[in-house]
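Collaborator request, handled under Task 6.
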Amino acid sequence: ILYNKLKITLFMSTARKNLPQRLLYHTVSQDYSLYTNIDQAVWRYIMKISYPFFKDNAHEKYVDGLDLMGISINKIPLVDDMDKKLDNYSWGAVAVKGFIPPIVFMEFLSKKVLPIAVDMRTHHHINYTPAPDIVHESSGHAPIIADPDYAEYLSAYGEISRYAIESKYDSELYELIREMSDIKENPNSKIEDLKKIEKRFEQMNKENVWLSEAAELARMNWWTIEYGLVGDLKNPKIYGAGLLSSVSESNDCLKSKVKKIPISIDCIKTGYNITEPQPQLFVTKNFKELKQILYEYKKTMAYINGGENGLNKAILSKNITTSVYDSGLQVSGILDKFIKDNNDKITYLQFVGNVQLSNNEIQIKGHGTDKHPNGYGGALGLLSDIGLPLHQLNSKQLKQIGLIKNTNVKLKFDGGLIIEGRVKNIHKINNSPILVSLDQCEVRLNNKQLYKPEWGTYDLSCGNKIISVFGGPADWNKFYNYTPSLEKSIHQSSNLNADTIDLNILYGKVKTLKMDNADNDNYIPILEKLYTNYPNDWLLCMEIYEKIYNDNLLKNEVKHLRAHINKFSENELIADTIRRGLDLIEKN
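Structure tokens returned to the collaborator:
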């Protein structure tokens, strides 16, 4: 741990140095000592059988990218080493604990920092793990960043996605997937817990729900960044991190049984199941094409267009969104409905629950969720007497319409909205009114009362139209009332448990024998222990097989070991993984 901290002191990428504190809140320290001998063996095996395959079948930057990004075939990488290497490409890397909220992941990418989950998959899930792990995040995502067009697409995707509107369903599904993945990867989890959560996952997947911007962009992410192919449609190369970190699916994905489809914006119409191999994959001609498709989608988003369409998306989401007025006022909360005036224009927004008022993504003093815990009603429109919205009025015009502190005022809007009350305060930004606080206030449209005097001070929003609607609150820290800390905590799991302690010692002994160039007959007592005490462990058998395979003095032992390993090939889930390992040993 001290070694890691010293390294951080000595060097940190520019991108990492520039991270805002709200992102640092999600970072952790990588404790390299928590990686077991078994973990290191899993890493080595994955990389050894994958490297020759990807040398021929991955994007041309993959092989060089491993070295350029500080990723070794022989040992689990240090995130700080990767951060140093990525700095050469104006990127950085930081350690995180497993699943982090999608909005946070996207913001890291927008800042050109790759979040690296530091947990390691167990040897039982050597082929694939649904939980983020260091295999997926480092050897999957990082190497292709060496291609500038891909790196540009990755950061652009992060920048755009962090403004996407996420539905309440999306949030609940994310939490369910995170919980399910953690249970699957935890060696101490109970089977009944897994079955219970898998049932809930199946039920949620069957629901007919509104497809949010976040869900559509998640699909684009899945079919490009995670499971993308690049190049010629008939002979594509792999670049998606999900494929580059999946031992089995990477080997199968290029076969004819998996349909190959030219990439287009229509990829967002294709769903996916994270628990099964994908029946189809999308192929891009090059990474420039991905950015073109991304920007084509961007043009449809609520944060670009705002207006009625954006507000409708916010209502459908049933989640926290931020509506941005043309005055710069940002209202964050759950939008319940909007009301149109007599001219069929939107004149009133009704939010429920906690609401925050901000400007430029900074909460306006005194207008956090503690001030607005029970909803908020925001007015819109032009004043009928002057033909301008409130935020465009100068001091002289404000006096002209009677908007003076400690005086009663009656404001009439085009379309029929009327607001009456006593002016308590006028909040300005750059000499432009953005909020007007009114006591004894009544808001009405025709014969309908939208705000009553007995409800307390009414904070009148200044603006004519909604120019943008984006997902989440404007000021995340203040809305959720947390204070990020610069102190890094260690939230890294260890795969060591009561069943693997002694087995891990055997892995350590094999590692020592290799380092010491010991005689091959030293491996035989370890094999005997494996046969007797750990008959279901094939990985260490494979490591020993590699060492003694060509030893003519141990022919009988080699033959017996080969037959023992063959038994594991009867398991279809790992048969191909074992075959590839045997081929590498026996054909070299």
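The cover message to the collaborator said: "DSSP finds 24 helices and 17 strands in the chain. Residues 1-9 have pLDDT under 50 and may be disordered. Please let us know whether this matches your experimental observations."
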